[in-house]
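Appendix C: a fully annotated inverse folding record. The material below is reproduced so that readers can follow the format used throughout the book. The structure is listed first as tokens, followed by the designed sequence.
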């Protein structure tokens, strides 16, 4: 069974941490539409899609796939190079 963990787009996405692109305005509505299309595609590819609620205080939080890679009985947690992206990796901590 394949699972894909996703998170709703943060309403603060316009404050996300750019990595290699010049900052441009982000349209929240379009970002949500694109993210929904992404989830739909994951489902069409056979994934069971898990959707977590938005994290309004974390502009990059919709990119949960950047924080872990899981296969069978092994999970590799990553650490982001950008400090504002670190909190989403702490989903399992109280």
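Designed amino acids, in order:
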């Amino acid at each position: 069974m394949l699972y894909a963990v996703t998170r709703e787009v943060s309403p603060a996405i316009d404050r996300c941490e750019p990595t290699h692109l010049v900052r441009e305005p982000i349209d929240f509505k379009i970002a949500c539409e694109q993210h929904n299309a992404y989830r739909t595609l994951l489902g069409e590819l056979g994934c069971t899609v898990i959707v977590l609620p938005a994290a309004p205080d974390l502009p990059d939080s919709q990119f949960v796939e950047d924080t872990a890679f899981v296969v069978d009985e092994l999970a590799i947690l990553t650490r982001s190079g950008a400090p504002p992206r670190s909190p989403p990796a702490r989903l399992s901590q109280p």
